[in-house]
Amino acid sequence: MIQNPLYIVGFVFIIAFGSYLLLTRTVTLPNFNLLYSTSTTRVGVSVTSPPSAGSSQISSPPSGSGTPTSPQISPSEIPSGFTLEDLSPFFHKVRMNGVSPGGLYSYSQVNLSAYGLSGGEAVDITGWLFKGNSGSQYIPQAVALYDPSGLSGEGDIVLKNGDMVSIYSTVSPIGRNLRLNKCIGYLENAAAFNPSLSRNCPYINRSSVGGFTGRCQDYIMSLSGSCRLPAASPPIAQDDYACRAFLDTLNYNGCYSKHASEPDFLDREWRVWTGSKFLDDRHDRVRLLDRQGFLVDLYEY
């Protein structure tokens, strides 16, 4: 039986159109080159530098430190031998404001300051590298809040605008690097730091000791603000128990308990003792490099 020609033409058209779609359909595959790219940029990349000998494992910058803004650098500010591409996002935000190589019998010292950071900007400098002509030194970790137990763990040194770091070639007598605080000078009574810690502790309010005997008040006020511990045999009557109980609080533990909650308890300065001397005694060209190896600052003497 012969079918209607129009039905035959329509059937052939449908078959042909379906075949065309199957042959011409485009399949989009993911770009694996982009997914597995190993390229890096200067900003926002966390690369862990190897720690110096004897230091703890260096961690990546904390998430709260933020992403640095690109510095505005004029060509005249770029050090000789470097290009704009060699500069760190923290160039001219953290500076070496003092380098002292020391001598045969004296320690070397490098002072850093962060005075170019914007409002809430912070920078993790642990793992940054001082590189001289013939020696180098990584910036290690430190204790941000030293607990009276002495068991405080070290963490990365994170600077905000106005913070400073003093780095010495001597060894810490307590085996810790420290952020200074109001009470830290009391540690000098049990350990000899080189250089010594500042003996500038909180003054005692006379009103807080007004109920004690006159001799007790005189002795307490003679110790006020000096970070000195009371004598083993203070000039106080043996039965002056209230005075002796108060004297027992004049130490790091007592000072910490009283003042640690105050908003200005922590100082703006960190102290780091590396135990190594990498600076040339006469002349050197010291580069401060961030974790990616970009230049933060340059100091020549």
TrEMBL record:
Residues 46-78 are annotated as: Disordered. The chain crosses the membrane at residues 6-23. This is LTD domain-containing protein. Residues 46-76 have a biased composition (Low complexity). Keywords: Membrane, Transmembrane, Transmembrane helix.
